[in-house]
Design goal:
Blueprint (H helix, E strand, L loop, with lengths): L8 E8 L4 E8 L3 H11 E4 L2 E4 L1 H12 E4 L5 E4 L2 E4 L13 H8 L1 H13 L24
Antiparallel strand pairs: 1-2, 2-5, 3-4, 6-7
Length: about 140
């Protein structure tokens, strides 16, 4: 699968250890400006002091790229009863403040999304072990 533009919809599948349930977040690819902003805000230097702001930066930018949640993955309490909600405006169980609810009640999961998107978006591939094998038999080794 190719990397799409920042407008495409992607899915991140998580397992929430607190509720012992699977969670699906829908997100868009961040823009270059958002990637720069994340990097600039996550670690700040003022004079000789360095301030690490990973948690709040992951939450802020995770919320920016988050476009939805899978219906039924989250519940809010109404009159003492858990009620599932949706992020899709066309759904009968749509809750317009779903992002605020996530920020208040599931910030750890949104921070995980932010870390995944902004800090773990790529990795350097190591060559296969076969490529590191002994040199070709036709080559002469120095003595």
């Amino acid at each position: 699968m190719a990397r799409g533009e920042s407008t495409s919809r992607n899915e991140l599948h998580l397992h929430d250890n607190l509720s012992d349930t699977p969670i699906v977040f829908y997100y868009r690819m961040p823009t270059t400006r958002e990637r720069e902003g994340f990097s600039n805000e996550a670690i700040q230097r003022k004079g000789k002091k360095i301030k690490f702001r990973q948690a709040e930066t992951r939450l802020k930018y995770g919320l920016k790229v988050l476009t939805g949640i899978r219906k039924g993955d989250f519940e809010r309490m109404i009159d003492g009863k858990p009620v599932p909600f949706a992020s899709d405006a066309g759904d009968p169980e749509y809750y317009k403040d779903w992002k605020i609810w996530l920020k208040d009640h599931a910030a750890d999961l949104v921070m995980l999304l932010g870390a995944h998107i902004f800090e773990g978006s790529a990795e350097i591939e190591e060559p296969d072990e076969d490529e590191d094998a002994a040199p070709n038999s036709s080559e002469t080794l120095p003595q």
